[in-house]
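Lecture notes, part 5. Sequence design as translation. It can be helpful to think of inverse folding as translation between two languages: the language of shapes and the language of residues. The source text, in structure tokens, appears below.
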């Protein structure tokens, strides 16, 4: 994990938020490579979950909503963690994560046993809307994106004219004042979620829970997480939320242990019912065949962008010893991202930077590819160094413009380039005019 954190900082995937002021615990900034990685992940989720389907539409809700949303959803009263304070060192700790010694709970910071009784600590960040900071102005930064979907259910049903079963998808920020943010970005206080609420008839809920579990596992495999690194944990009924008729956690083998990536939950009609009761507005569905009104049930696959990005980096990280033609060995650090997720798809290198023809040709290739994918032009240093830099960024392809390309060694290889494959380090010769199609089909 230390190596991954160091690489993330060195190469600009992830930085501590407000770093020059000492940071802010639980908050992170994504640098150029991390931002591209997250964008690729979100774009692929959107493609799979919305664009490639007839039965899902998207929405983009506001982060602050009327406080009554959080009263009705139950978050204001029950979205809490049990918390204790250490009277000795004043640390605030999760009561359910304390180590025990001789059957007694102990403070993991100072070792004291002098702890307060557990108290419920609400995880929502409170804020005020408008100029007055009184009770009537209170609301919360949303702790999940899902509630915006439930409260807009009626509007979206009407405008999209969908019939059950159908879903509403959303990607956006969520905020939780976690007591112990930890494991790098895994548990943060500000993070992004990718959530789908898939509405259905009550009799199809259990079957759709199984369907979405399989769909979501397929998604993770398609972004490059191996089946062996993914685990499904069926939450025992007594541990499920009271309104859930079944929940699965999709887990991943992080370097710090097997931990949750996504929850797939059958939430019944709980949320729509709560909002219908609290708002007094109908949130039911009229079934034209049976001429009946009822509240749809919902199955919710809810994934974390930041956790999945961390899983992608952890799964991709590799070190291998390579020996060059002169017999010199060195350790190569390589991020073996699936090309679909890789922040940069292709590095473009003129063999020498002081040869005008090589540079001009390489720049033309960059211009040709730029509209289709993220490319990176690099002319500095020995070509081997440039390859290594891209290996560490996870770039799957490297294109080198050499003297064959510009016809200096005869016409046979003119207008062709070397394409180097990151994982095997093998090289092949490709015509420049075929490059965009060659790369395009491998990164989609
Ligand atoms: N609407 C359901 C819901 O929010 P959740 O299991 O609390 O369910 C869903 O959250 C996903 O959001 C998690 O599986 C995880 O990927 C992500 N997530 C939750 N809390 C997080 C945190 N503190 N830091 C990073 N990601 C988090």
């Amino acid at each position: 994990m230390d190596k991954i954190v160091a690489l993330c900082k060195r190469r600009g995937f992830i930085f501590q938020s407000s770093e020059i002021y000492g940071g802010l615990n639980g908050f992170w900034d994504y640098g150029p490579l991390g931002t591209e990685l997250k964008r690729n992940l979100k774009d692929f989720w959107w493609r799979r979950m919305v664009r490639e389907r007839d039965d899902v539409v998207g929405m983009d809700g506001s982060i602050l909503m009327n406080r009554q949303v959080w009263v009705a959803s139950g978050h204001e009263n029950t979205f809490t963690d049990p918390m204790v304070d250490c009277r000795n060192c004043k640390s605030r700790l999760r009561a359910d994560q304390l180590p025990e010694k001789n059957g007694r709970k102990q403070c993991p910071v100072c070792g004291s046993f002098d702890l307060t009784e557990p108290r419920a600590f609400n995880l929502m960040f409170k804020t005020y809307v408008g100029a007055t900071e009184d009770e009537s102005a209170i609301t919360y930064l949303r702790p999940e994106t899902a509630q915006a979907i439930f409260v807009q259910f009626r509007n979206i049903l009407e405008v999209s004219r969908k019939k059950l079963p159908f879903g509403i998808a959303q990607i956006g920020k969520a905020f939780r004042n976690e007591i112990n943010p930890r494991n790098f970005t895994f548990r943060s206080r500000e993070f992004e979620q990718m959530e789908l609420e898939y509405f259905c008839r009550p009799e199809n809920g259990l079957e759709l829970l199984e369907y979405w579990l399989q769909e979501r596992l397929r998604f993770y495999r398609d972004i490059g997480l191996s089946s062996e690194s993914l685990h499904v944990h069926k939450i025992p009924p007594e541990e499920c939320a009271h309104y859930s008729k079944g929940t699965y956690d999709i887990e991943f083998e992080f370097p710090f242990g097997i931990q949750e990536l996504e929850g797939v939950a059958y939430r019944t009609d709980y949320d729509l019912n709560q909002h219908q009761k609290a708002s007094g507005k109908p949130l039911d569905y009229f079934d034209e065949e049976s001429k009946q009104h009822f509240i749809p049930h919902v199955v919710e696959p809810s994934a974390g962008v930041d956790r999945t990005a961390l899983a992608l980096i952890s799964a991709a990280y590799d070190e291998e010893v390579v020996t060059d033609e002169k017999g010199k060995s060195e350790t190569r650090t390589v991020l073996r991202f699936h090309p679909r997720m890789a922040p940069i798809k292709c590095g473009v290198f003129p063999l020498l930077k002081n040869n005008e023809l090589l540079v001009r040709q390489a720049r033309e290739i960059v211009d040709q590819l730029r509209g289709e994918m993220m490319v990176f032009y690099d002319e500095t240093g020995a070509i081997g160094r440039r390859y290594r830099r891209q290996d560490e960024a996870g770039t799957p392809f490297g294109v080198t413009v050499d003297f064959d390309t510009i016809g200096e060694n005869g016409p046979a290889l003119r207008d062709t380039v070397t394409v180097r494959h990151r994982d095997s380090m093998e090289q092949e010769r490709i015509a420049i005019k075929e490059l965009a199609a060659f790369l395009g089909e491998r990164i989609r």
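The translated text above is only one of many valid answers, since several sequences can fold into similar shapes. The mean pLDDT is 96.
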